[in-house]
Design brief:
The chain is mostly helical and about 260 residues long. It has eleven helices and no strands.
């Protein structure tokens, strides 16, 4: 009886937590379809007026393109650094191995605000503040731990015997990697890339410090509009679009998790 009561209590707490988490999101998404110029909930009518305004607004569209490009380039750099590094960590023992691992995970250890302030000062010295290169470099470091964790886990579960078998049949180390190992870890790599894209796409803290005025990501644009104008209907619609993008990417990531044998 006590066990059953405890189970019921845990279920109730879980559902309350879920409702507390999701209800604000539901309110925001529903409010995005309100045609009125002021916030009301529930809406008196339903319309795509503010979504249309969002997709017509040049500043929002520019910010959306910046966010997509920024996340894409950041993930590409994180993969270029993370794949060989995590492969080496999973296959070889060498001096400085722990240092490499710590470097890959370093952005997880510092509060983002502290790191953003440090980047602000550093970029001002080397003249990267407000530049696309500076943004991409910062976001690449930001997403690197998420990419590295997924790829490191995947590499760890691929037996080295498979690579050795390929080499015994005449394949070079490079060929055995691309034709044997990489296909096996590819779902995990894709999951890491998807999660990294989401982390970059949804970042505000780092971007708001170093983005400047020419290259503003979408989340920073929404933050600025809400801070300056209060509850702006176009910003609410933009937020709903961001939520839609995140949901799609998360579903895509979950699909690849199911395909992977190692996650």
């Amino acid at each position: 009886m006590e066990t059953r009561r405890s189970s019921i209590g845990l279920v109730v707490v879980a559902y309350m937590t879920l409702c507390f988490t999701l209800l604000p999101i539901v309110v925001l998404v529903v409010a995005a379809f309100n045609p009125a110029e002021y916030f009301t909930f529930p809406p008196d009518d339903w319309s795509f007026r503010w979504f249309a305004a969002f997709f017509r607004d040049r500043e929002y569209q520019s910010a959306l393109r910046v966010s997509i490009a920024l996340a894409g380039y950041s993930v590409a750099i994180a993969l270029a650094v993370g794949l060989p590094a995590t492969y080496a960590l999973s296959r070889y023992k060498f001096a400085g191995r722990n240092v490499v691992h710590t470097f890959l995970m370093s952005s997880l250890f510092l509060p983002r605000v502290i790191w953003a302030i440090a980047l602000l000062q550093f970029y001002a010295v080397i003249d990267l503040l407000g530049t696309p290169v500076g943004l991409v470099m910062a976001h690449a470091v930001l997403v690197l731990p998420y990419v590295a964790r997924m790829t490191l886990t995947s590499f760890a579960y691929v037996s080295q015997n498979l690579e050795q078998a390929a080499r015994s049949l005449g394949a070079s180390p490079v060929r055995s990697f691309f034709e044997v190992t990489l296909p096996l870890v590819l779902p995990g790599v894709i999951v890491g890339a998807v999660f990294g894209f989401v982390i970059s796409f949804t970042d505000v803290v780092v971007s708001v410090f170093i983005s400047g005025v020419r290259f503003i990501p979408l989340l920073v644009r929404i933050y600025v509009e809400q801070r300056g104008q209060g509850i702006d209907p176009t910003a609410i619609a933009a937020s709903a679009v961001v939520i839609g993008v995140i949901v799609i990417l998360e579903l895509l990531g979950e699909r690849f998790i199911k395909w992977s044998r190692f996650i």
